[in-house]
Design goal:
Largest sheet: 5 strands, parallel
Bound molecules: zinc ion
Helix content: 25-40%
Structural class: alpha/beta
Strand content: 15-25%
Oligomer: single chain
CATH topology of the largest domain: Rossmann fold
CATH architecture of the largest domain: 3-Layer(aba) Sandwich
Number of helices: 10
Length: about 300
Amino acid sequence: MQGAGTGEVGLFIDLENIRYSFLNVYQIEPNVAQFIEKARKHGRVSVAMAYADFSEHPQWVRRALDVAGIAARDIPVRRFVRDGHERLKSSADLHMLMDIMETALDRPQVSTYVLMTGDSDYIRVITWIKNRFEKRVIVCGVPGTISADLVAAAGEADHLAADHGVATDALLGTIEAVAIMMKRATPPTGFWTIKLIDQWARDSRNGVPGNDPDKSNAISYMIKNGLMRRYKTVTDVREVTISELDETHPMVRQFVANAGLELDPAPLRCLVCAARNAIDVVICVGCGAVLEIRLIAEET
Ligand SMILES: [Zn+2]
């Protein structure tokens, strides 16, 4: 096995796979600086690329990649209709495969390949660059989302860990500020969507503390942990998914009390008819459905 610094390093990041795996497993955004550090351990990084349809990710992702010296390869998703349903086709993985192969053929000085993905689609290319070119391959994925065959093919793994807790004190401050922003204001559309919450949270006039990744983390924490409730509705033009603060959630109730604001007297949204009910109501006043009781584990 070659030691550190004996050749150049190529870093290839399947950003789609890594970012969504991070959000699912750790409920936080990945730290892009950690990506480049993982590669630097093995020598001088002469190729560093990340693949995604960047229109599907917040703007700070691309800026963080720029700052880390990682080239963003923007591969727009193709949309098409089959059997009356809109479908999406991403070819980001195909572009990453081609770039790995081109690097193996055209840049012989790159001796170590750091592949950030958990996807078994890369097994063949890994086997190919190892067997045909005697390259060293290290797989970096998010634990719990990595194909075992992929790691076996590479022979080496160096997985990505969450480098801070799920809800640090700083993140809680951001979460509380987003909750209060949603409580105090209603956007001109009359309702909140994730896009609007994200835009308002990033607008300095709204006083939400933290950097852009903190704000994305706060919003995803609120969705995952039930501080926001989401439901679909049809406006006169299209279907939208509305996000609203869930004032039945104990954290939200605490935030509202901390801010000295009045709690909503009818915070319980019926998932059948969307009517609002008092917190202690069991049968919906709008449609008679039995209201879903969400049990929230007490924080210990
Ligand atoms: Zn109802």
